[in-house]
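Structure tokens please, single chain.
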Amino acid sequence: MAVTTQVSSDEKVITIKVDGRFDFTHQKEFREAYKNHCIPDLLFNVELSGTEYMDSSALGMLLLLKEHADNCKGKVILKQPSEGIIKILDMANFNQLFDIQ
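Here you go.
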């Protein structure tokens, strides 16, 4: 898996792209992508179009990101998950916690 991060020029949008397997082996890399960003109205876009697999630890990492965003008065959007990833997110009721587009 690869985690890449892009910060918008106004630093109000952080895009975190997750390719391949999203599991515990990349927990530190995922956390590093957002931990130093905290301003009001910050938007975290988590791009999941290239995510092939997601386990329970990945769900936990998304919850930690949401907690961080909430503490910063920001928002998390999960973008373009595949059908398989949508099923996982729905089973975990993440559709009630996150904006999934």
